[in-house]
Write a structure and sequence with these properties.
The protein has 19 helices and no strands. By secondary structure, it is mostly helical.
């Protein structure tokens, strides 16, 4: 993969239905200024994650790197748990993405079975991942490019509408920034900002895919830092820029309650075919997320097998370097998640979604702690900081700040009754992962000792 692939894969993993469909509802919950503040803090946290990950990925470019770094610098049980959590995150996401894609197609083909479209898109995504790493990267590059173009167009046209160059239905004059503060800075109270911040980290999840791709990147010492340096700027432009435009053009009480704020703004501008255009963009966002998700979950299984934690058959690759068995199992996991969302939505699927929701934040914490321990070990071996091709600036403040902020995102969920179940399901699951790993390790040691003469 090249630098352009890494950049678009990172953006593609982040920019999804959360921005296109749910952002208006977030503004409705926290108010315009509160939402902008929360997303600003979230962008900073993600950037700190990327800085920590950059040092590790450049020093040790490994495919499925989170598992490998956590294994080496925290402990093998943590490495296994991180890999399982990240695999589960994307596998559960696969099920929901394919369902969403099928439902989106019904807007163009009403009455058609959702499962037919879901199956069609499953085939497309599997083929994209199975042909080669290069083919996957090119596919994701163009999927992400469509989303980026749509967001840039939205921001530019929205800015013209804010100053009155483009007329907006419902306004006799330029709206300017009146909607941002007309009901006060925090119309729903500061608690609304706090609640939004708990979910912002989940909205930004996906940037860490750069770490997963490290082992399959051309010239990682150059391309990974280049992709990381532009991450914060693009997150600020795409997320905060979009939300700023939405908040300025739509009163927060009505933002995203009944439809996508993107569609609402375009319709008010009188833009023809706004609904169909945004339907296409959202469908692209869904397929992009599924494409990246299948890649990430496949590489996590490959990484576990490569390290010998699970059967090494999962590490076997095709002539084009694709681990097909790991790909197939990840796809089956997505199908099972899809089935559970229909058959056991209130039990099994609820647990899966709750666990996967917090999993990415725990992965971020593992990245920060791995980087702290790596630097300590690096210096203890007689190396110097100047030998590192990419160094986390502000070490050790940056990794510790990222670790603490991510930890607070998990702990403070206790105070939100709507998200408290995530923590209640996550803690036993983590304990189960550790128990499985060390139980299996003990069993293997006992079997080896018995087999020795």
């Amino acid at each position: 993969m090249e630098s352009r692939h890494l950049l678009m894969i990172s953006l593609g993993g982040v920019i999804g239905t959360g921005l296109f469909l749910s952002s208006g509802y977030t503004i409705h919950q926290a108010g315009p200024i509160g939402t902008i503040l929360a997303y600003g803090i979230g962008a900073v946290v993600v950037y700190l994650v990327m800085l920590c990950l950059g040092e590790l990925a450049v020093a040790m470019p490994e495919t499925g790197s989170f598992h490998v770094y956590a294994d080496r610098f925290i402990g093998p049980g943590t490495g296994f748990t991180v890999a399982i959590l990240y695999w589960l995150t994307w596998t559960v996401a696969l099920g929901s993405e394919f369902t969403a894609a099928g439902l989106m197609m019904q807007k163009w083909f009403p009455g058609s079975p959702t499962w037919v479209w879901s199956l069609l898109f499953m085939v497309v995504i599997v083929v994209s991942n199975a042909l080669s790493v290069r083919f996957f990267a090119e596919t994701e590059f163009w999927f992400s490019s469509i989303k980026v173009v749509a967001i840039v167009a939205f921001i530019l046209l929205g800015a013209l509408a804010i100053v009155g160059v483009i007329h907006l239905d419902g306004y006799q004059h330029a709206p300017l920034l009146h909607n941002l503060t007309k009901d006060g800075w925090f119309p729903t109270g500061f608690k609304g900002v706090f609640t939004t911040m708990l979910t912002v980290n989940f909205a930004f999840s996906g940037t860490e895919l750069i770490g997963v791709t490290a082992g399959e990147t051309k010239d990682p010492a150059h391309n990974i830092p280049q992709a990381i340096r532009t991450t914060l700027m693009r997150l600020v432009i795409f997320f905060i820029g979009s939300i700023f435009v939405m908040a300025a053009l739509i009163p927060w009480q009505y933002a995203g309650v009944n439809q996508s704020p993107f569609v609402l703004v375009f319709n008010r501008m009188g833009l023809p075919f706004a609904g169909d255009l945004m339907n296409f963009v959202v469908l692209t966002a869904i397929l992009s997320a599924a494409n990246s998700g299948l890649y990430a979950s496949t590489r996590m299984l490959w990484s576990l097998a490569h390290e010998g934690t699970i059967s090494r058959r999962f590490a076997q690759t095709s002539r084009r370097g694709v681990p097909l068995l790991a790909l197939a199992v990840s796809m089956v996991g997505g199908i099972l998640a899809l089935a559970s969302s229909v058959v056991a939505a209130g039990t099994v699927y609820l647990v899966l979604v709750s666990i996967s929701g917090l999993a990415v934040v725990i992965v971020w914490m593992a990245i920060a702690l791995s980087e702290i321990n790596f630097r300590r070990q690096w210096l203890a071996q007689g190396h110097t900081d100047s030998e590192l091709k990419f160094r986390t600036p502000g070490f050790p403040v940056v990794p510790w700040a990222e670790l603490i902020m991510s930890l607070l995102s998990c702990v403070l969920i206790v105070f939100d009754p709507n998200q408290r179940s995530s923590l209640l399901y996550m803690l036993p699951f983590i304990a189960l992962c550790y128990g499985f790993y060390y139980g299996r390790a003990a069993w293997r040691r006992r079997r080896e000792s018995v087999s020795k003469p």
